Automatic annotation (TrEMBL):
Residues 292-356 form the YknX-like C-terminal permuted SH3-like domain. Belongs to the membrane fusion protein (MFP) (TC 8.A.1) family. This is Efflux transporter periplasmic adaptor subunit. Residues 104-172 form the Multidrug resistance protein MdtA-like alpha-helical hairpin domain. Residues 210-283 form the CusB-like beta-barrel domain. Gene3D superfamilies: 2.40.30.170, 2.40.420.20, 2.40.50.100, Helix hairpin bin. It comes from Anaerosporomusa subterranea. GO terms for cellular component: efflux pump complex. GO terms for molecular function: efflux transmembrane transporter activity. Residues 69-202 form the Multidrug resistance protein MdtA-like barrel-sandwich hybrid domain.
Length: 362
């Protein structure tokens, strides 16, 4: 009897151990550990959902490069970088000694030509009287007339030379042609400069502009833009409306972008030359658009698709895309407003798979 009880106890123990082992083998595994973790973004449709922005710099509309019209050694500098000047102010001067000598020489030539002309005039008058009395022939009078006209022409030539040298004396001073600010100084006292060599860049007072660089695929959109808004990095509370004034006819050879000048409707007094600006370009049309990150696009064959999350399960939805900008892509068809799309981890998902959403603490 004891032996039977002992055998029965062993059988019961074996059954219990077998059942426990079975439960361990078939115990549901921790699904959370194997559920993919994804990042998501909610789709939002809105009119003119995206504005393209371009960084630029504040410039004056008129920037003049000033240079001497003659060459020489600079002996005087009256301005510094950033100096405010008025029209007519003398900015630089070159050594005028040789020019003054030229003026003196030209003046002497003029005086000699005048003396020759007076002598020729007296001789002509004398020959005319002698001709009237029959003492000389008409040929002598004609010869005196020719001498007078030649001498008169020589005087005019000397006067022109004197005027030219006098102008050069004026050119020895570099004068501001307008009110403005000195933006760049490219020469120093003691330097010998050639005629036409850049000496100063003068930024004229008045209208200010923003210069930006635009890729070729955005030019048409920029030209049709209805609204340009300009903000300034250093002036957080200043916003100015802008308008496209000029687009360069050729692209920059290195950057392959076009320089565009944006005129400011009303520049605030705080806006200074050289400030960093940001130009926002809103599309002209009123289409309702949505933009999602490029990382959300999953290509299945030739069809772009996105993973849409609903009840923590993903479904692959084909979409039709439009423009690309700033690492975003325009969605034209396929998504509903408010849909939650996966933006990171799209290549590790399967249809109907459960996912964990970053930030939800799952």
């Amino acid at each position: 009897m004891d032996r039977k009880l002992w055998i029965g106890g062993i059988l019961v123990l074996i059954l219990l151990l077998s059942f426990a082992l079975f439960k361990m083998i078939n115990k549901p595994q921790n699904q959370t550990a194997h559920t993919p973790l994804v990042r998501t973004e909610r789709v939002a449709f809105a009119a003119d959902a995206l504005s393209f922005t371009y960084s630029g710099e504040v410039h004056a509309r008129y920037e003049t490069i000033l240079a001497f019209q003659i060459g020489g050694k600079i002996i005087q500098r009256n301005v510094e970088l950033g100096s405010a000047v008025r029209a007519g102010d003398v900015l630089f001067a070159i050594d005028p000694k040789d020019i003054r000598e030229g003026v003196n020489s030209a003046g002497a030539t003029v005086a000699a030509a005048r003396s020759q002309l007076r002598l020729a005039e007296v001789n002509l008058e004398r020959y005319r009287k002698l001709y009237e009395s029959g003492a000389v022939s008409q040929a002598e009078v004609d010869r005196a007339q020719t001498t007078y006209e030649t001498t008169e022409a020589s005087l005019n030539q000397a006067l022109a030379g004197y005027s030219t040298v006098g102008n050069q004396l004026d050119y020895s001073r570099l004068v501001a042609n307008a009110n403005g600010v000195v933006a760049e100084v490219s020469a120093e006292v003691g330097q010998v400069v050639a005629a036409g060599q850049k000496v100063i860049t003068l930024v004229q007072d008045g209208e200010m502009e923003i210069e930006i660089n635009v890729p070729e695929n955005r030019l048409d959109e920029l030209q049709k833009a209805q609204d340009l808004t300009v903000n300034f990095w250093a002036l957080k509370d200043v916003t100015v409306k802008g308008k496209v004034r000029e687009i360069a006819p050729m692209a920059d050879k290195a950057a392959r972008t076009y320089k565009v000048r944006i005129s400011l409707a009303e520049a605030a007094p705080q806006v200074k030359l050289g400030m960093t600006a940001k130009v926002a370009v809103a599309p002209k049309n009123g289409k309702v658009l949505a933009y999602i990150p490029l990382s959300a696009i999953y290509h299945s064959g030739d069809t772009p698709s996105v993973w849409v999350v609903k009840d923590h399960a993903v479904t692959l939805v084909p979409v039709r895309v439009g423009r690309f900008a700033d690492n975003k892509v325009e969605i034209q068809e396929g998504l509903e407003n408010g849909a939650v799309v996966v933006t990171a981890g799209v290549h590790k998902l399967q249809e109907g798979e459960k996912v964990r959403i970053a930030g939800e603490g799952q």
